[in-house]
Amino acid sequence: MLAMTLLGDYVEEGSFFPISASSFAEDNDWLFAFISWTCVAFFVPIAFALFYFCVRYRKAPGGKAESNAAHNTPLEVAWSVIPSFFLVAMFALGALSYLDQRTIPDGANEVKVQAYKWGWGFDYGNGVINPELHILKGEPTKLSMRSTDVIHSLYVPAFRAKKDIVPGRYNYMWFKPTIANDRVPAEDLAAMKEQFEARGESWNYDEAQFTPDGYEFYDLYCTEYCGKNHSEMQAVVVVHEELDDLKAWVKENSKRKDGVPPAEYGENLYQNRGCKGCHSLDGSRMTGPTWQNMFGYERDLANGDKVVADENYLRESVLYPKAKVAAGYQPVMPSYKGQLSDDDLYCLIEYMKTLSDKAPSVSVGGEAGGDEPTESAGSED
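^ thats the sequence. predicted structure below, dont judge the formating
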């Protein structure tokens, strides 16, 4: 129970459990309590009898052993049959709960999930992919999950829902949220953003305890050890009260907002689309090459060739990462083909340019979501 407490920011008063926020939670908590207290009820008298008999019938050292076998049929039947009823009840209740969580209702709202080292991508359709899971209160939600590398496991403590994600196949889970998340006042959101900007830091969910859009949230974790940065593979779940509010959020996050400079939006993609888990910005070695002084420099490839890291190379490396693998690195990066728009790719490349001393002056204007400038992107569809 302590482990569950540590895995959730929201804990119900007087309980060891995180807040019960799904249709599964109440039944599962009751079943957990029933099994736990049943075990306690049997363990305490058995342990007491064990110590009592050890003391009561202890013989002095060197004493002769005596044979005093006794047989009590009613007692033996009682301690065999009565616990069996409890075991059958535990199995039946557990099986019913398991089947409920594995039987996805027809018409459930579907969100596609991609797990990778070390992040999450939630696909809402029409090219809208975000590292936050946003769903609707009172409506069953189906997650169609896949992994691009190793085994991961999606766990939402407040929903009491967990399922492994195995590479090479799709796994499914569902839940029906019952408590919507509140939205913090605009002044609180503005104050928190000012604090982060003053320190030159990106958004920190743990410190702020609400999303950059001002929503409170439930925690989402990977609970299958998946490598070096497994502990950082966290995300948030936001439950919306109204469908219109959810649709507005999806629309708001469907593309770069008007007036946002490409490089600034590219930094946001770096933070939220899993890039930071493998690529450093300070030259330190990680799973993938550092982005510091990447653009414009010649780099060695694993096949012995050399290539200049221009716009075309960077674009190809994002869409087809195994085409030209950098020397000294393994071809483990997943393809982002179909997950990033042309404008997303353009913004990422513009951000990479800001990290290189060989980059030309970077445009900070431009129409959000517009056509990709040929002289900056240097690439074709």
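The first strand starts at residue 109 and ends at 116.
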